[in-house]
């Protein structure tokens, strides 16, 4: 079954929310429902999709801002890494309290399920491998489904995630990219938390911030 991916750019920070669906069955899931998820919710409703889960790459406010609206509308569980388990309920930790010019303080109920490195989750007829990729935040994860990688704010097209926020660490970010993501096949498609998609091979050849390790 082919994975059908729709992108919704949400909120003031232009966060990519991804809707992954099987058109035949109407089963779907959401990765990173950002702030102001109205367009995403309208799409889900118009196509009568059954949302099985919300997967969070991490719990910064621009990625979790729409969690409660989507969870309540779809009656589905949320998955998040344990290192950020309390970020949904704490505006200081998810960053929304730090940016009053961008948003009011945001909270959501805790996630129903935790994520761990190497875990494989079966959803909508596909397998999603969890890769713990810290550096942008301590609980950042990437989701690998076949040749599609959802990298959150770890790896972007010719850029990388910032590491100057609480819990960020540059050495961890570089390690995550060089030792985890850059070991994937060159043709793996990367769907980042912001901006256009790319591939692992393109980033290995062209990303100016993180070069591949010499092997």
UniProtKB/TrEMBL annotation:
<dbReference type="InterPro" id="IPR001279">
    <property type="entry name" value="Metallo-B-lactamas"/>
</dbReference>
<dbReference type="GO" id="GO:0046872">
    <property type="term" value="F:metal ion binding"/>
</dbReference>
<keyword id="KW-0479">Metal-binding</keyword>
<dbReference type="GO" id="GO:0016787">
    <property type="term" value="F:hydrolase activity"/>
</dbReference>
<feature type="domain" description="Metallo-beta-lactamase">
    <location>
        <begin position="14"/>
        <end position="194"/>
    </location>
</feature>
<comment type="function">
    <text>Counteracts the endogenous Pycsar antiviral defense system. Phosphodiesterase that enables metal-dependent hydrolysis of host cyclic nucleotide Pycsar defense signals such as cCMP and cUMP.</text>
</comment>
<keyword id="KW-0378">Hydrolase</keyword>
<protein>
    <submittedName>
        <fullName>MBL fold metallo-hydrolase</fullName>
    </submittedName>
</protein>
<keyword id="KW-0862">Zinc</keyword>
<dbReference type="InterPro" id="IPR036866">
    <property type="entry name" value="RibonucZ/Hydroxyglut_hydro"/>
</dbReference>
<dbReference type="InterPro" id="IPR051453">
    <property type="entry name" value="MBL_Glyoxalase_II"/>
</dbReference>
<dbReference type="Pfam" id="PF00753">
    <property type="entry name" value="Lactamase_B"/>
</dbReference>
């Amino acid at each position: 079954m082919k994975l059908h991916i729709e992108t919704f750019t949400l909120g003031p920070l232009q966060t990519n929310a991804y809707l992954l669906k099987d058109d035949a069955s109407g089963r779907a899931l959401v990765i990173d429902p950002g702030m102001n998820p109205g367009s995403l919710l309208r799409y889900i409703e118009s196509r009568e999709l059954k949302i099985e889960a919300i997967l969070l790459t991490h719990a910064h406010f621009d990625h979790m801002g729409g969690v409660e609206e989507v969870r309540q509308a779809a009656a589905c569980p949320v998955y998040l890494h344990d290192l950020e388990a309390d970020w949904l309920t704490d505006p200081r930790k998810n960053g929304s309290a730090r940016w009053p010019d961008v948003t009011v303080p945001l909270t959501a109920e805790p996630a129903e399920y935790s994520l761990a490195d190497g875990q494989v989750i079966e959803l909508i007829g596909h397998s999603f491998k969890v890769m713990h990729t810290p550096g942008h935040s301590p609980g950042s994860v990437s989701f690998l489904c076949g040749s599609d990688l959802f990298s959150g704010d770890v790896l972007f097209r010719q850029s990388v995630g910032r590491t100057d926020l609480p819990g960020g660490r540059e050495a961890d970010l570089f390690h995550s990219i060089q030792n985890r993501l850059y070991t994937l096949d060159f043709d793996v498609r990367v769907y980042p938390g912001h901006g256009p998609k790319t591939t692992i091979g393109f980033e290995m050849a062209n990303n100016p911030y993180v070069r591949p390790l010499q092997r």
